[in-house]
Each structure stands twice: as C-alpha cells, then as structure tokens.
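Protocol step 4 of 6: structure prediction from sequence.
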Amino acid sequence: MPPSRIDAIRKILELSPNDPFPRYGLAMELKNTGRLDEARAEFEELERRQPDYVPQYLMHFNVLVALKRADDAKALGARGMAAAARKGDAHAAGEMQAAIEALEAED
C-alpha cells in the first residue's frame, strides 16, 4: 500500500523541520481528515517556529473554533492580525478581524 499523504508530508517535514510550507500542509491535511487535535498541535508548532507565516492563522483559528475553544481562537486571531500587520498583509488582517467578529457575534 502506498504511503498516505500525511505520511508523505511527515517525511518531507523530517528533512526540513523549519520550512513552514510542509508543516502547514501537514496541519491542513490533518484538519481536512478530521484529526483536529493533531492539526491544532501542528499549527501550534508552526506558529512557534514561524510566527510570521501568515496563512496559518486563519486555518488554525478555524480548527480552534471547531474544537469549541473560542477564547483560544480569539487570542490566536489577535496574534494573526499582528503577524499580518508586520508583513503588510492588510487582506489577511481583515479576514482575521472578520473571523473574530463573527465568533464574537455567536457568543
């Protein structure tokens, strides 16, 4: 049986543990297969290693919301907005702000 996508991405990650793209890919694959706690752990590691990798924040936010961790999601959203501001990414900052506002409207 061929290796799963998750296994294949993990092998790439072993070779380049500080490259944000394969870690993001692993987190997304775990998220998309419903393995939310594992996805959350990979997103946390990605943020620890690469806090200015802006694409991670909204996806990690969505995982935290799905795990019913609204306070953690809001805190992450604030960090994501700050990272987007540091990178000059107004679009990502706006998406993050909208996600936080939508979550707060549900409270």
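Step 5 (inspection) to follow. The chain has one domain: 5-106.
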